[in-house]
Amino acid sequence: MHLRRRVFSKTMRMVTLTLRHSQTPLTDQLDRLFSSFRKLRQRQSTHELFRGGSMFLEVKYSALTRTWHPHLHILCEGAFCSQKTIAEAWHAITGDSYIVHVKRVDSDDRMVTYV
Question: How many C-alpha atoms does 30 have within 13 Å on its Cβ side?
């Protein structure tokens, strides 16, 4: 289904989940990122945030540090969950990563264009 039609007139949030930079091979980092997101969706404190939506993987590379930076951008439909709660849960799951960003999306067009 076309993304614009899927999110039209719904209350959506953009959640960005990052992992701490490391020298770990990219495939291992991706496995860890997806596994951690799966665990986050199953946690009682955060699972209502992720009732539906779309997930997008972005991978950046730093030539300076020679590290990969995979992260997820998630457009989700669900109940409110504070950024603090998500960050604490993310840190508990990953053990070393706590940077998350949560924002309610006001414009369907901006949201879809960004991802």
Answer: 8
Q: Which tokens is 22 given?
A: 């490391």
Q: Are the C-beta atoms of residues 66 and 25 closer than 8 Å to each other?
A: no
Q: What is the pLDDT of residues 47-70, one digit of tens each?
A: 888 888 889 999 999 899 889 999
* End-to-end alpha carbon distance in the chain: 15
Q: How far is CA 49 from CA 7, 27, 29, 53, 56, in A?
A: 15, 27, 24, 10, 17
Instruction: Find, among 71, 87, 57, the residue nearest to 21 by Cα.
Output: 71
CA distance 88 to 84: 6
pTM score, whole prediction: 0.85
